[in-house]
Specification:
flat; Cobalt-precorrin-4 Transmethylase, domain 1; binds iron/sulfur cluster; alpha/beta; 4-stranded parallel beta sheet; Rossmann fold
């Protein structure tokens, strides 16, 4: 049986930097809190918590004084910095540079179009992202809470196309859905109103798409390892499933079902930008341990599906689709 870990999966540089900053501070003996989960992966959070990192939420942060707090890669709205200043909180700011640059762009656009634009029309800053996601809260904060968030293509209908519209994206959203939204807006803008879109999707996620799809097609079974709260995890997992229906999302090795291995000769293990390599290695070890059991089951000809649970998953027997070899251009770069 072949078991392969996708080389392109694992922490992006933004998450790696945040974790390194946390580890460095904890090793120096300082007490450190992190505002929100440092990464959308429960097992990595637990590892850092065991080193002394304390995870706090915003409510607790607002009551905190004279402490050191790490801001994770997702970034924060201006109100967080204001609270830190008034409560004498030392910030270790691990906001990813890509997110920081996006915050600045949105702030600049908001300040230049606030109220009515130079043409006298009302203007809207629109963010394609997940409502309530930490990064999106940080982006909306740059507009004094006035930006409109759209989560899906269907939500785009609620926009007022007589206004000027400036469209941005959360860094981890799907590039193809973003392009569909752009197209819809272009078709529906009222004559004379301005529409500008800015492709602000992080290439740490978008560039993984073609290779992870190819990886998924290559294997009979795919184990996609990631926290269920991970935004980029959802995007990458859905892409894997599209290319290999025999893909399972797991948070860790304990969720691997031995029945999935029945008749399988090739397993791919991959994950999100928030998935630690060590966790994918643990999944590989778990599968290694299970494969002897799987082989025994195969040899004994235990083909009665009832023996493997109520709803056994069948291996992917579809003819692999051709990889997407299109190059995606970034509009308005
Ligand atoms: S996905 Fe991109 S923007 Fe988000 S933390 Fe990672 S590198 Fe930064």
């Amino acid at each position: 049986m072949i078991i392969e870990i996708d080389k392109g999966s694992g922490f992006c540089f933004g998450v790696t930097t945040a974790i390194e900053k946390a580890e460095e501070t904890l090793r120096s003996g300082r007490q450190l809190s992190c505002l929100g989960d440092i990464v959308h992966n429960g097992m990595e959070c637990a590892r850092l918590n065991s080193m002394g990192l304390v995870t706090i939420e915003h409510e607790e942060f607002s009551r905190l004084h004279d402490a050191t707090v790490l801001l994770r890669a997702h970034g924060e709205p201006p109100s967080t910095y204001a609270t830190a200043q008034s409560n004498n909180i030392t910030l270790i700011d691990a906001t990813c540079p890509v997110v920081l640059a996006l915050q600045k762009r949105i702030k600049k656009m908001y300040e230049s179009t606030r109220g009515t634009d130079s043409d006298g029309r009302l203007s809207d800053i629109v963010i394609f992202g997940k409502n309530g996601h930490a990064e999106v809260l940080g982006l909306v904060g740059q507009t004094e809470g006035n930006a409109i968030v759209i989560e899906h293509l269907e939500d785009v209908r609620k926009l007022d196309f007589s206004h000027n519209i400036y469209l941005y994206s959360q860094t981890t959203k799907s590039l193809s859905e973003f392009h569909q939204i752009i197209e819809y807006c272009r078709e529906h803008m009222e004559k004379g109103a301005t529409f500008e879109s800015f492709d602000t999707i992080c290439r740490s996620v978008a560039n993984r798409m073609p290779s992870i799809c190819e990886f998924a097609r290559k294997h009979e079974l795919v184990l996609f390892v990631c926290g269920r709260k991970s935004s980029n995890g959802k995007v990458l997992y859905n892409a894997c499933r599209e290319h290999n229906p025999n893909t399972h999302l797991i948070e860790g090795p304990d969720e691997i079902d031995v029945a999935w291995l029945q008749g399988i000769d090739s397993i791919g293990i991959c994950g999100a930008t928030s998935t630690p390599k060590w966790l994918m290695e643990q999944c590989r070890e778990k599968v290694e341990g299970m494969k002897d059991e799987g082989r025994r089951m195969k040899e004994e000809g235990m083909k009665d599906e009832g023996l493997y649970g109520n709803s056994p998953k069948r291996p992917n027997t579809q003819t692999p689709k051709r990889p997407n070899t299109q190059t995606t251009k970034r509009p308005n770069d």
